[in-house]
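chain below, 72 aa
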Amino acid sequence: GLYGGACGYISYAGDMDVAITIRTGVIKDQVLHVQAAAGVVADSVPELEWKETEAKARALLRAAELVEEGLE
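prediction:
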């Protein structure tokens, strides 16, 4: 899936729209694949980085839940 770069387009007219893909959700074969990460540096605490990653992914998962609830 997409993660850790820029995603967007540049048109022939010179228009550009891009976003940095630091949290992504891709649906393939009716399965949502979520990716999120934290910025690990020399003084990072692994447990806190893991919790940060979970919190970031939680937003995408909650959005998917809301969509599913709306479709039922």
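Helices lie at 46-71. The first strand starts at residue 6 and ends at 10.
thats it, cya
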